[in-house]
Write a structure and sequence with these properties.
mainly alpha, 2 domains
């Protein structure tokens, strides 16, 4: 609820730009703390209650409740943006209802992943591979989309809002497959060559930190 207020506040008046840039998008940050911190907090809460449910043999009941809740949330979000509500409400940025809608999709997809891993052998599931390397996937997909490595432009600048629904779905699936393959390769590398993997990870972190200092 406070994110719309923080969204309009220029924190460079109170903080150094290095810190202010983390709080909202006024200075170019793609995923600032407000409102994206919400997903981290919800993830922590969801994990706590999921583990409690699993420990009490109520895991299936918990997932069913999460699925129903997610469907209600995402449908409510779509209804909110269907044109029934005035623009004075729907134009609020970042909109709390938009967050609820996105969270609804997250809950539904999380539940689908749970059902999939129950259907398949967990040890061979691509869902497990992706979850183990979620930090790598999160960082790498942002680099692919937003890094200015394609003729000093990123993919967002090159493609823009030109894709139709089916093209967007195909592009998303291609990116997901690439990220899952990257997770599988990195997970295999860490298992087979743990010492080299550790050195490689610290090397990448060091190089990125140097780039941050000189850019």
């Amino acid at each position: 609820m406070i994110s719309p207020i923080f969204w309009k506040t220029d924190f460079t008046h109170f903080l150094h730009p290095v810190l202010a840039n983390y709080l909202n998008r006024l200075n170019g940050s793609l995923f600032p703390v407000f409102p994206w911190l919400n997903f981290i907090l919800v993830g922590a809460i969801f994990s706590k209650y999921f583990l409690n449910a699993a420990a009490n043999n109520k895991e299936s009941k918990f997932i069913k409740a999460a699925t129903v809740t997610g469907i209600i949330m995402l449908l409510s979000g779509h209804l909110f943006y269907s044109g029934l509500f005035p623009g004075s409400l729907t134009s609020i940025l970042p909109n709390p209802v938009f967050f609820i809608e996105r969270l609804g999709y997250v809950l539904v997809f999380a539940s689908l992943c749970w059902y999939y891993t129950r259907w398949r052998n967990v040890s061979k599931s691509f869902v497990l591979d992706a979850s183990r390397e979620s930090l790598l996937i999160y960082w790498l997909h942002l680099v692919v989309i937003y890094s200015a490595t394609w003729g000093k432009k990123n993919l967002v600048d090159i493609i823009g809002q030109t894709l139709n629904v089916w093209e967007s779905i195909i592009a998303t699936l291609v990116l997901m497959i690439l990220m899952i393959l990257a997770a599988k390769v990195w997970g295999w590398t860490k298992m087979k060559f743990p010492n080299y993997a550790t050195k490689a990870a610290w090397g990448v972190v060091g190089v990125l930190f140097m780039i941050l200092l000189v850019s």
